[in-house]
Amino acid sequence: MKLKNGPISTKEKEFIQANGALGVQAIADRLGRSPTFVKKHLREAAPPAAAAATALRDTAAWKRLKDQLTAPELVYFEEQYQGWMEQIGEDDVLASERTQVIKVIMYEVMLDRTLRQSKRVAVDIEAAELGIEKCRKQIASPTNGEEVTKAKGELPSLLDMRDGLYTQKERLSVEHAKLDEKHQKLMEALKATRDQRLSKVESRRSFLDLIKSLQNDEIRKRAEFEMDQMNRAARKELQRLAAPHQFADGQFDRPILNADTVMMEGEAHD
């Protein structure tokens, strides 16, 4: 089937926005468009943060992440990445900050891994302790010679296993502490702690960034509405302050007296 060319139609745009969950290829097949065309307009239709998460899948970094992380970890990574982009602003993020965000989330994944490993070790320690207790009871209260012999043979290996598990537990604890320290340092570098966000607000948005944002219909209409309301409020307040006002000493005067307010009074009398 020959693929359609040309600009996107309103119906196509609405279909892409409503059916993003179908996937790029399915949408492309339904519309008779190329996957590249669909992917481009999916990004435009998505919120900036969601588009950033989608764009991440096209990078070499994502290919490495797929080799390093499990499927559930990848889902978590995408969710966190989108959250970070919403917090710091996709349009305002630098390449160095994007790299830091990826590292922060990787540290979180690694912290989660150490916690899950620690849990498994704790379960194994509990099982080893129960085995040791059982062997000691059998040895202390012999009822069956074969069971005593078996218990005496199993006890040393269980003790070694328990000691090894405690060593592993300690190693995981140290590793978790080191990862947590690195994670916190990166969080501070990204100014992600609440104290830093409140103590200093920085913005790198330029006038060109503002003009670009006003190309969005919703943002432009909201700005027009706010400007109209501001002008209405300013005119109403000017009329109030241009009218005679009785001050505390009983004298009447206009808080704002200039050529414009005098003209306003003349127009009112006319």
Describe the structure.
The structure is a single chain. With 270 residues, the protein is mostly helical. It has helices at residues 10-18, 24-31, 35-45, 48-56, 60-68, 71-88, 95-140, 145-189, 194-199, 207-213, 217-242, 259-269, and strands spanning 245-246, 252-253. Strands 1-2 form a two-stranded antiparallel ribbon. The protein folds into three domains: 1-45, no CATH class; 94-199, Orthogonal Bundle (Helix Hairpins); 207-269, no CATH class. It is elongated, with a radius of gyration of 34 Å. The mean pLDDT is 81.
User: Which oligomeric state applies?
Assistant: single chain
Mean pLDDT: 81
CATH architecture descriptor name of the largest domain = Orthogonal Bundle
Runs in which pLDDT lies below 50 for 5 or more consecutive residues are none
Give the number of domains: 3
Indicate the CATH class of the largest domain: Mainly Alpha
What structural class results from the helix and strand content? mainly alpha
Number of helices: 12
Secondary-structure element series = HHHHHHHHHHHEEH
